[in-house]
Specification:
The complex is a heterodimer of chains A (about 160) and B (about 450).
Chain A lengths: L13 H30 L1 H28 L1 E4 L3 E6 L4 E7 L3 E7 L2 H5 L2 E8 L7 E6 H17 L5
Helix pairs in contact in A: 1-2
Chain B lengths: L13 H23 L6 H25 L1 E4 L3 E6 L5 E6 L3 E8 L1 H6 L1 E8 L8 E7 H15 L13 E5 L2 H9 L2 H19 L5 H6 L1 H18 L3 E5 L2 E6 L4 E6 L4 E8 L8 E8 L7 H8 E7 H12 L8 E2 L16 E4 L3 E6 L4 E7 L5 E6 L1 H5 L2 E7 L8 E7 H26 L4
Antiparallel strand pairs in B: 1-2, 2-3, 4-5, 4-10, 5-6, 7-8, 8-9, 9-10, 11-12, 11-17, 12-13, 14-15, 15-16, 16-17, 18-19, 19-20
Helix pairs in contact in B: 1-2, 5-8
Classes of the chains: A alpha+beta (about 160), B alpha+beta (about 450).
Chain lengths: ~160, ~450
């Protein structure tokens, strides 16, 4: 969507991909391994191999999905508004004017913190607004938050 | 009304009215209890219980009344209340979104009214209810609040002249509710079940009987709508639009100019032969919360000839509306086969208009100044057809803003850009105008 832009898309840090991969490993690959072991012990080696193959396919799909989703994230700070795009299956692009911002949140989960990442979320008076950028390096997140807050104040307009 | 800056009390009959409500609740609760335990039923204890609850409640209401006071200053409304935990609330008048005078049926008998102030950001409830005031006092206070909110001199405009624009005849209202989708759907259901029952000698009877609560619900809902929207009058006053309606509980709403977030015009299937339309309005602050409250405050005009409805919308928004005429590409029929012809978008320098709907033709109007954010979404099926949906979000809670569904993806992007550019121009203008104001 370069036709929308006068700046370039910026992207989340590569560490976000690591976070997502760890999540897939923990919540998809690991249960698959456990299931395969249980089936192999309880029902036999052939069945165990079958479950392993299925698990490998599922995990592979999950890894590729998080990779593609990571690639799809992008944000752009334009002169008057912030653009956020995301999603592979359902593609979304949000445009939030700085002047419409009510407040900005910076959040970070335990894994995010360990890797020095944070998520910046913009809230407007509309409940449907969903501009949120994950996987920013802490310094970039802080910079973005301060810049958004400053721009929001400079361009604030009523409801 | 005495001098402008003195603390004032609510009407002295307030505890009586609250006591009456507690009496009703107590009777209902104890009555249910009594019916449930048949053998231990004792009318005396029951009566004493109701009496005790009512006296206790009334005493609390009296204390609460003693501790509640309010006053209006030049810039804010101040309300102090609370028996144990004191609360002192300041409502900045510049933030006022709407002011309603609500009069439940019992309050009407006593000549009392409740004043509700709507401010953005409350969790569903009116932020500053003043219950109860005497009727003329409520109206006078509303006049002063609205005048102060608009930056005019308060006392001069205590009662403003208003010109009636539309009055909805009762016959039309009842007919429109009967022809509305819920009643219609129920009637069709009953008919189908009836036919099946007759033909199959009673086969569908259990289903028909099981659906009884549904019929009752639909009838209650429709009945409530008639009661709430009975005698609907739209009038224009210098401080905004006045809506007055209700048979038992009456409500008088004031929507100040420029507070409308979005407008929706609905034309159900069976209304079309009569050329009727319903207009709903969304003002920031009117609650998500309770559905009754939502239903009571949603209509700008419950039913009227289409031309009149459109004229009123134009009047509220202050300008003629663009016609939603830009169609979606013909390949959109693979995604929305039934509603494709209804999916249209119109844009001018002030408003975005979209239409959609299969049975009920729905037209959404959003002033560009009210757009909070814009979104473009494209699901897998849409993506494959090179389609995208444009959403214009507003701060209202009831209407979802305007949605231009299934546009050609390049057209949608161009539209997004254009809407963003035009609303930016509006915001820039507004900001320069607002300098110097709080």
């Amino acid at each position: 969507m370069t036709d929308l832009l006068d700046g370039a898309w910026q992207r989340p840090a590569r560490a976000l991909l690591t976070v997502r991969r760890v999540e897939v490993a923990l919540f998809v690959a690991l249960p698959c391994v456990v299931a395969a072991v249980i089936v192999a012990v309880a029902a036999g080696l052939v069945e165990g191999l079958g479950v392993t193959a299925a698990g490998a396919v599922v995990s592979g799909l999950a890894f590729s999905a998080v990779h593609r989703r990571w690639l799809a994230w992008g944000y752009a700070e334009r002169a008057d508004d912030l653009l956020v795009r995301r999603g592979v299956l359902v593609r979304r692009t949000s445009v939030v004017p700085y002047g419409r911002m009510q407040y900005v949140d910076v959040t970070a989960g335990p894994l995010d913190r360990r890797l020095g990442l944070a998520r910046v979320t913009l809230h407007t008076a509309a409940a449907a607004s969903d501009a949120s950028i994950p996987g920013l390096p802490a310094a970039e997140a802080t910079r973005l938050r301060d810049r958004l807050a400053a721009l929001g104040e400079a361009r604030a307009s009523g409801i | 009304m005495t001098t402008g800056d003195d603390w004032q009390r609510l009407h002295p009959l307030t505890p009586v009215l609250r006591g009456w409500r507690i009496l009703l609740v107590a009777v209902a609760a104890f009555g249910q209890q009594g019916l449930r335990q048949q053998e231990g039923f004792n009318a005396l204890y029951l009566g004493l219980g109701v009496l005790a609850a009512t006296l206790f409640g009334t005493a609390l209401s009296f204390l609460s009344w003693r501790r509640t006071r309010y006053r209006l200053t030049a810039t804010e409304l101040q309300i102090d209340s609370g028996i144990l935990q004191r609360r002192s609330r300041r409502v900045p008048l510049a933030r006022l979104q709407a002011v309603d005078v609500v009069r439940p049926v019992v309050a009407r008998v006593l000549g009392l009214a409740e004043l509700r102030l709507e401010v953005v950001g409350g969790a569903g409830k009116a932020e500053a209810p003043l219950a109860y005031l005497s009727e003329e006092h409520a109206h006078a206070l509303r006049g002063r609040l609205l005048a102060a909110a608009a930056g005019r001199d308060g006392d001069a405009a205590a009662e403003v002249h208003e010109g009636v624009l539309v009055r909805v005849p009762t016959g039309t209202l009842v007919a429109s509710v009967l022809l509305g989708t819920p009643i219609l759907a129920t009637a069709v259901l009953v008919l189908v079940l009836g036919v099946v029952t007759v033909m199959q000698s009673g086969a569908a009877l259990p289903v028909a009987l099981a659906a009884l609560p549904t019929y009752a619900g639909v009838i209650t809902l429709s009945g409530r709508r008639v009661l709430q929207e009975y005698g609907f009058t739209v009038a224009e006053a210098p401080d905004g639009l006045r809506l007055r309606h209700g048979l038992l509980d009456t409500r008088s709403q004031t929507i100040p100019a420029g507070r409308v977030q979005a407008i929706r015009v609905l034309e159900p299937l069976l209304w079309r032969p009569f050329g009727w339309a319903r207009v709903e309005v969304d003002v920031a602050g009117y609650g998500g919360g309770r559905s009754e409250e939502q239903a009571a405050t949603s209509a700008l005009l419950p039913v009227a000839p289409r031309a009149l409805a459109h004229a009123l919308v134009g009047r509220v928004l202050g300008r003629a509306l663009p016609v939603a005429a830009a169609p979606v590409p013909s390949r959109a029929r693979w995604r929305a086969p039934l509603s494709r012809r209804r999916l249209q978008v119109g844009l001018d320098h002030n408003h975005l208009v979209t239409t959609h709907g299969v049975l009920t033709t729905t037209t959404d109007v959003v002033p560009l100044t009210k757009i909070q954010s814009l979104r473009l979404t494209s699901g897998p099926w849409q993506h494959w057809l090179r389609l995208a949906t444009l959403h214009a979000d507003t701060a209202g809670r009831r209407l979802s803003g305007a949605v231009g569904a299934h546009r050609d993806v390049y057209e949608a992007r161009a539209l997004l850009d254009e809407v963003a550019r035009r609303s930016r121009a509006h915001r820039a203008k507004e900001t320069t105008e607002q300098i110097g104001q709080p």
